[in-house]
Write a structure and sequence with these properties.
This protein is mostly helical. The chain has one domain. Helix content is about 75%, strand content about 0%. The radius of gyration is 15 Å and the shape is elongated.
Length: about 80
């Protein structure tokens, strides 16, 4: 549901904030590269930093909004 909100722009700021919090929790729980060794550590580190990048993008939507062509702008 959050992805649909981001794509359409309807309540995008709230959806992006919730997705950012969720992604942060999941990243720390599932990609704990600091407790691993070898290839597993490298793979999990890559996924962890990928998720941090996605969190940054979500925070940009929270800060700046979905844009002027969003459905949420026309409705609300």
């Amino acid at each position: 549901m959050g992805t649909a909100c981001l794509v359409t722009g309807f309540k995008a700021r709230q959806a992006a904030a919730m997705m950012c919090v969720y992604l942060g929790i999941v990243s720390v729980e599932l990609h704990d590269f600091w407790n691993l060794t070898g290839m597993a550590a490298g793979t999990n580190e890559t996924h962890f930093f990928k998720n941090l990048g996605m969190m940054g993008g979500l925070l940009m939507i929270v800060a700046y909004g979905p844009g002027r062509w969003s459905v949420g702008r026309r409705v609300g």
